[in-house]
Design brief:
- By secondary structure, the chain is an all-beta fold.
- The protein is 0% helix and 51% strand.
- The strands form two sheets. Strands 2, 4, 5, 6, 9, 10 and 11 form a seven-stranded mixed sheet that branches.
- Strand 5 (46-51) and strand 6 form a beta hairpin.
- The termini are far apart.
């Protein structure tokens, strides 16, 4: 079965950086769209960034220019490099997967697999 395990979260000051990792297993990695969504307390889930099976990437407007999604197919690992972090980026971040080509920013509901999440806390 699909398994996604996130790591790399933590606490940083505004302006700092973090890199999240997601180790994936249990499926044909290359046929899936992979992405990240986040959820802050009391708020709805928000699609942050994704990469579909053809390599096309999508980003939420709130993170464009600051976050970069990438993946290492040899390691079946997805990354999210987060720079210039802001307090409003504070949330639990989840790695997610969907079969086929989807954009997590607008198609979050199609991402039916996700991990346990990793907490990101940005202080001002």
């Amino acid at each position: 079965q699909v398994q996604l395990v996130e790591s790399g979260g933590g606490s940083v000051q505004a302006g700092g950086s973090l890199r999240l990792s997601c180790a994936a297993s249990g499926y044909t990695y290359s046929r899936y769209s992979m992405g990240w969504f986040r959820q802050a307390p009391g708020k709805e889930r928000e699609g942050v960034a994704s990469r579909d099976s053809r390599g096309s990437t999508s980003y939420a407007d709130s993170v464009k220019g600051r976050f970069t999604i990438s993946q290492d197919n040899a390691k079946n690992t997805l990354y999210l490099q987060m720079n210039s972090l802001k307090p409003e980026d504070t949330a639990m971040y989840y790695c997610a997967a969907a079969f086929g080509d989807w954009n997590i920013v607008v198609d979050l509901g199609y991402f039916g697999y996700w991990g346990q999440g990793t907490q990101v806390t940005v202080s001002s």
